[in-house]
Design a protein that fits this description.
The chain has about 350 residues and is of the alpha+beta class. It has 2 domains: about 110 residues, Creatinase/prolidase N-terminal domain (Creatine Amidinohydrolase, Chain A, domain 1, 3-Layer(aba) Sandwich), CATH 3.40.350.10; about 210 residues, Alpha-Beta Complex (Creatine Amidinohydrolase), CATH 3.90.230.10. About 30% of the residues lie in helices and about 20% in strands. Helix 7 crosses helix 8 and helix 9 runs antiparallel to helix 10. The protein is elongated and about 65 Å long. The structure holds glycine and manganese (II) ion (2 copies). The site of one manganese (II) ion (MN) has 5 residues, from loops.
């Protein structure tokens, strides 16, 4: 997939006067990739308000850089090579050490490229859709193999391997598998804990495809669920549905969070849901915009985003249900299509 990188740099160039800088020195590797197409761990691009740009990278990547539609130079110190007095810099990406060395005359800025990246073009959405299809298929292929005696780590390994077999670059993040009481820890790292009949098992995983991420969580029951397990499951499912229905261009990030959170609070479980409702996905697994009680800003059209409420009961277990969707005029498009009925395996 190739993108119109020059058009992206032009959009950025037009934003710079509002930030009172004549140029932005972009040092975040993901932002450099977004603006030039160069995927690397060490590159910078200077984008000027007049639309011109210069890319710098080291000799590991300079060959790839020279194939691109932006002038490039080789430099060990990529940011130092491109710095211009009065240019903006990305405060979130430049280290304090680099700032002490280079920062004089530069203007630290908050997210600029990140906010541009939040709204995707149809080509990007196609890649995220494919990443989500791989994720759904991996779940469908692995679910019949989930059985008592398998460890959390083994199950995570099956999901990761299947996603790679189906064409993923790699897993989008470290896969989470949490069985029984471990389900009460939202970001539990898989262990040698064996799955047992009577467990709820939460799997949070996704594929990365051509740099773009998918993110999905499903909680299944190993054997018939107890009454409390079904009750918590149905509560989280209702909250997740309310959150999905609230996703719309123009909705505020806080309102969408509240639509789901209020369902959980009204059931008396507010203190058992202590993370944000969701986040944008794209070239990063967590990116703008973020949905949470104190988040400001409004959603736009064509923003891929997760909706992932959970209820976590210490010592007992938990349920999280997460989809990746994209905002659309007329209602969100669901990318992760695996059923949200409670699967009893
Ligand atoms: N897998 C990390 C998250 O859901 O945000
Ligand atoms: Mn997730
Ligand atoms: Mn997520």
């Amino acid at each position: 997939m190739t993108f119109d990188y020059a058009a992206r740099r032009e959009r950025l160039a037009r934003l710079l006067p509002a930030h009172e800088v004549h140029a932005l020195l972009v040092t975040s590797p993901v932002n450099v990739r977004y603006l030039t197409g160069l995927a690397s761990s060490n590159a910078a691009v200077l984008v000027r308000a007049d639309g011109t740009a210069l890319l710098a990278t080291d000799n590991r990547y300079i060959g790839a850089a020279r194939e691109l539609d932006v002038p490039s130079v080789e430099a060990a110190d990529v940011a130092g090579r491109l710095k211009e007095p009065g240019a903006g810099i990305e405060a979130a990406s430049m280290s304090v050490a680099a700032y002490h060395r280079l920062g004089e005359g530069l203007v630290p800025l908050g997210p600029v490229v990140e906010l541009l990246r939040a709204v995707k073009d149809e080509g990007e959405l196609e890649l995220i859709r494919t990443a989500c299809e791989i994720t759904d298929r991996a779940f469908a292929d692995v679910a019949p193999k989930i059985a008592p005696g398998m460890t959390e780590r083994e199950l995570a390994g099956l999901l990761d391997r299947r996603m790679t077999e189906l064409g993923a670059d790699k897993p989008a993040f470290d896969t989470i598998v949490a069985a029984g009481e471990n389900g009460a820890v939202p970001h539990h790292a898989p262990t040698a804990r064996e799955l047992r009949a009577g467990d709820l098992v939460t799997m949070d995983f996704g594929a990365r495809y051509q740099g773009y991420h998918a993110d999905m969580t499903r909680t299944v029951s190993l054997g018939p669920p107890a009454a409390w397990q079904r009750e918590v499951y149905e509560l989280v499912a209702a909250a997740q549905r309310a959150g999905r229905h609230a996703l719309a261009p123009g909705a505020s990030a806080g309102e969408v969070d509240a639509a789901a959170r209020s369902v959980i609070e009204d059931a008396g479980h507010g203190t058992h849901f202590r993370h944000g409702l969701g986040h944008g996905v794209g070239l990063e697994i967590h990116e703008e915009p973020f949905l949470g009680p104190s988040r400001t800003g409004r959603l736009e059209d064509r923003v891929p985003i997760t909706v992932e409420p959970g209820v976590y009961l210490p010592g007992r277990g938990g349920v999280r249900i997460e989809d990746t969707l994209v905002t659309r005029e007329g209602g969100p498009e669901l990318f992760t299509k695996t059923t949200k009925e409670l699967l009893v395996l």
